[in-house]
Amino acid sequence: MKPLVEVAIVDVCRNTRTLPCRKMVIADLGCSSGPNAVALVSIALETTRNHFLQLQHPPPEVSLLLNDLPYNDFNVVVKSLVVLRQINEPIVVAGVVPGSFYERLFPSGSVHLFCSSNSLHWLSKAPEDLRIKQIPAYDIDENVRHERLPVVAGAYTRQFRKDFTLFLKLRGKELVPDSRMVVSLAGRRSDELVTEITHVWGTTAQILGVMASEVNARL
Ligand SMILES: C[S@@+](CC[C@H](N)C(=O)[O-])C[C@H]1O[C@@H](n2cnc3c(N)ncnc32)[C@H](O)[C@@H]1O
User: What keywords tag this UniProt record (predicted)?
Assistant: First the structure.
């Protein structure tokens, strides 16, 4: 995502309408707590610094905000953020924003760049119709699984559409007009359900299923 974040930052910095107060807010949604947590905001910060250095203009003050669900290990995240703050130019203020990205997280018109890597395939909930009928996402019985595949895939597709539309509406309110959003998530180009990706998940699910039945047998 590095080149995409770099282009987005340069666009935001070039646009005088988006940075009239020379203050910039950058947020990562679904940051997690490993080394990746600060990867995208670090790229954004570095690009901002280089851009203004080249122009020989003072850089804007930057707020870096990292979001994830409340049970994320924010203690680890905060320690990485402190390292980023030690860079003197530009002034960097860093913080965490616990909460779901399927809710409002930031004030209206306040964010200049949203990044999100590999997080938006996490839905807000399992599809209601499957939950009511007690249909699992992955049935251990292969025949049942194949029979139900269109129903299950359809329900998850509808839930994803609902969630993603909501996500875009919420972020649309929070973004400064003319600013940018860079997101990545796993996807598939064709309607064909059996692809390399589903094979990988199928095998993983089978292994987990076997492990679960072995544990059940021992109990
Ligand atoms: C696969 S990790 C990706 C982490 C990191 N962005 C990366 O690229 O390595 C997905 C992250 O999204 C977070 N997540 C899932 N649903 C979320 C939601 N509704 N709101 C905020 N974060 C969410 C998870 O807690 C998890 O940390």
Answer: Magnesium, Metal-binding
Residue from 2, 33, 69 to probe ligand 1 pocket by mutation (most atoms less than 8 Å from CB): 69
Residue 6's nearest CA partner among 56, 54, 67 is 54
Quote the number of domains for the chain: 2
If asked whether residues 99 and 24 sit together in one domain, one would say yes
Same domain (yes/no): 54, 17: yes
CB count in 10 Å sphere of residue 92: 21
Q: What is the C-alpha to C-alpha distance for residues 35 and 155, in angstroms, rounded to an integer?
A: 34
Range of the domain at 11: 2-122+175-187
Task: Indicate the residue type of 207.
Answer: I
pLDDT band at 205 (very low <50, low <70, confident <90, very high): confident
Q: Which of 122, 166, 174 to mutate to test the pocket of ligand 1 (most atoms within 8 A of CB)?
A: 122
Examine the domain organization and report whether 193 and 183 are in the same domain.
no
CATH of the domain at 98: 3.40.50.150
